[in-house]
Fold this sequence. Notes:
By secondary structure, the chain is α/β, with parallel strands linked by helices. It has a single domain (2-182, 214-233), classed as Rossmann fold (3-Layer(aba) Sandwich), CATH 3.40.50.720. Helix content is 48%, strand content 15%. The protein has eight helices and seven strands, in the order βαβαβαβαβααβααβ. It has helices spanning 11-22, 35-47, 62-76, 99-127, 139-142, 148-168, 193-202, 211-222, and strands spanning 2-5, 26-31, 52-56, 81-84, 130-135, 173-180, 233-236. A seven-stranded parallel sheet has the order 3-2-1-4-5-6-7, sandwiched between helices. Helix 4 links the parallel strand 4 and strand 5. The longest helix is centred in the middle third of the chain and has 29 residues, at 99-127. It is globular, with a radius of gyration of 17 Å. The termini are far apart. The model has no long low-confidence stretch (mean pLDDT 95).
Amino acid sequence: MTVLITGASGGIGKAVARLFAQKGYNVAIGYNRGKDSAEALCRELCDSGYSAKAFCADVSDSSAVREMFKRINEAFGGVDVLVNNAGIAQQKLFTDITDEDFDRMFSVNVKGVFNCCREAIPYMVNRKNGRIINVSSVWGISGASCEVHYSASKAAVIGLTKALAKELGPSGICVNCVAPGVIDTPMNSCFDSDTMTSLKEETPLMKIGTPDDVAKAVMFFASEDSSFVTGQVLCTDGGFIV
C-alpha cells in the first residue's frame, strides 16, 4: 500500500508521514520548497527500516503533478491513499489582498487538491478502492478575520470533498476531510505569544493541538475503521468550533 502526502516537509505532513510509515505503507513524501526537510524526513524513515521516497512538485502546476505521479508509480506503484495536505496561509486585511495573493491562495489550496485527485483517481477507480483525505481548516467552516482568501479556499476544499465523495462512492472510494484548529506548527509561527495564549484560552480543551493529533485523524480516514464513512469533515480543534 502506498500513501502520498503532499506538503510532507511541514509540521502536519511530517507527522502524517511518520504514522503511515509505522503502519507499513510505502510513503511518498511530497514537497515543493522544503527540499532539505523532506530529504531529512526520508532519511529518518529509511534509517528506521521504513519504505519512503521524496518527490518534488508544485501542486498548483498540473504538469508537475502529473510527472510526480509518474515517478511515484515507477517507485511504488499507484497511490492507494492520497493525503492532500499542501497549503499556504496569509494574514491580510481584505482591502490589502491583491489579485496575486488571491490567485496564489486558490492555486495551491484548491487547484492543488484538484490536480492531485485527478491523477490519483483513475488507479483507485480501476481497483474499486481508495482513500482521499483532504486537509482543510476550521477557518473553512467558521471564517477568520484578516484571512478571507485563506478561509474561502479552505471552504472550497470542504465543498470539493463532499461533492467528490458522492461521485466516487459507487467506485468504492472514500473521500473525507480533516479540519485542524490551532496546531503547533511553523505555519502558526506568525502569531505572537499573546495571540497563541488567547487562542489556547478560546479552545475548550485549553491547549494547542499537535501535528500528531491531526495525523491520527487522517489515519482514521485511511483505515478500515472508516470504511462506511465518506464526505465527512472531522474537526481536530479541541472544541474550538462546536
